[in-house]
Amino acid sequence: MKLNILRADPAGNITLFVLDPVPRQRRAEVAARLMARPELGAEQVGFRCPPRQGGHGRMEMMGGEFCGNATRAFGMLVARELGGLDRVRIETSGCARPVAVDVNLAMGSARAEMPLPLWVRPAQVGEVSGQLVHLGGIAHLVVQGVSPSQGFFELAEPLFQQLEGLDAYGVIFLEPGAGTMTPLVKVPATDTLVWEGSCGSGSLACAVAQSQNAPDGAFERDYVQPAGVVRAGVVRTGGAVTAAHIGGPVTLDAPVELEV
Questions:
Q1: Contact 114, 204 (CB under 8 A)
Q2: Fewer beta carbons within 10 Å, N or C terminal of the chain?
């Protein structure tokens, strides 16, 4: 089957958008084939779909998960197609309502509204203490001072398996002194475990975890990741997170037709 594909680079989190309709039952297969092509260097795949909630566009990820980086990249694509809008409303998998994406085409950047955390809890993996941040369809364990490894992820994985309704989950290895983080994220529906170049929801999880004892108001940080920088921010009111966003650079390649 021939499909039109667009390669997006939101802060190094390489995402392929399938622009043609693909039946839901075939998406995991299509995503696996695209991600297996080394020349594309993809970490994840999203599928363009007709809007259902009055948004400017709709995108569904390969495993039905929510992805902040993919959302803001798709927002830039839609904004460009609609003549250069500076704000669009994007419907996305893993989120019950459209989210706002602010786009600056001249600067090559996009900022997406993010789901608010359902809860934040302390979690223990062996002798390591961390913060488990549940963002709805995706959850992340934020740990500090731990060398990134798949072995640690496997030790932590039972924490996520106890939670219902997760489309994806990850361990975020944070070094707060250097402002760096390394994300390792799993999407069970497609059986993929990826060291991501950057992770939008993981960046937000770090901002949520680091702002737990911060005063009310805005809290923002730049998180330097293996392939790019994501700026994540929250607003706290009465100690609770009442708004959240991520932003950073995005580049979009021209669409190409591929035999998949």
A1: yes
A2: N
